[in-house]
Amino acid sequence: MFLVLLFSCLVHPYHRSLAEVQWNTESQRYEVALRVDPRDLDNALSDQHRRPVVLDRMDEADANAMLKAYVGKHLRLLRPQSDSNRADEDKRPDKAATMHWVGFEADDRGKYLWLYFEWTPASGEAPQWIENRLFMKTEPTHISTLVFTELDKRPALVFTKQRSRQPLPEAAAAR
């Protein structure tokens, strides 16, 4: 039985990402540190650009531009602009937070990449939502977790392909 379990773990790849999110009262921005597997990221970028992409072989400025575009498209902080009960033709598009790219680095073991950026929330009174589609196209079993580190209970949101949009935890949304 142990050998069967061990074999199934080796055959089935494990795809996860983890983000730590913290509100900065001085800048009025959410600061995000996102830990990803570089192989998952290379696969997703290769798929998006329809050519092989290997970040550690790229010029740093090109890599930053590519990462900013990918993360900005697939991980968004949103403020809905219309009532979800309205007819589709009456709905206005969601307002996305402004993303400010900071950069990226490999961890000390070279196993993960850390991506850093900030969100300035869109104005408005509607509750905020996070839409997370990171790696969902190339790794359909990917699980992405966002942890709100400055809040007492450290609430977390867990995203999958089937659950890619969730409201901000109440304490985090009260910004």
Would you spell out the secondary-structure blueprint of this structure?
Elements: H1 2-11, E1 16-24, E2 29-36, H2 38-49, H3 60-74, E3 75-79, E4 95-96, E5 98-106, E6 113-120, E7 129-132, E8 143-148, E9 156-159, E10 165-167, H4 170-173
Parallel strand pairs: 1-8
Antiparallel strand pairs: 1-2, 2-6, 3-4, 3-7, 5-6, 7-10, 8-9
Order of adjacent strands in the largest pleated sheet: 5-6-2-1-8-9
Morphology: globular
**Rg (C-alpha, Å):** 18 Å
**Estimated share of beta-strand residues:** 25-35%
User: Into how many domains do the coordinates divide?
Assistant: 1
Number of strands: 10
Number of helices: 4
State the low-pLDDT regions, or none. 1-12
Helix content: 10-25%
Distance between the termini: 51 Å
Task: Note the main sheet.
Answer: 6 strands, mixed
The helix/strand order is HEEHHEEEEEEEEH
Mean pLDDT: 86
Structural class designation: alpha+beta
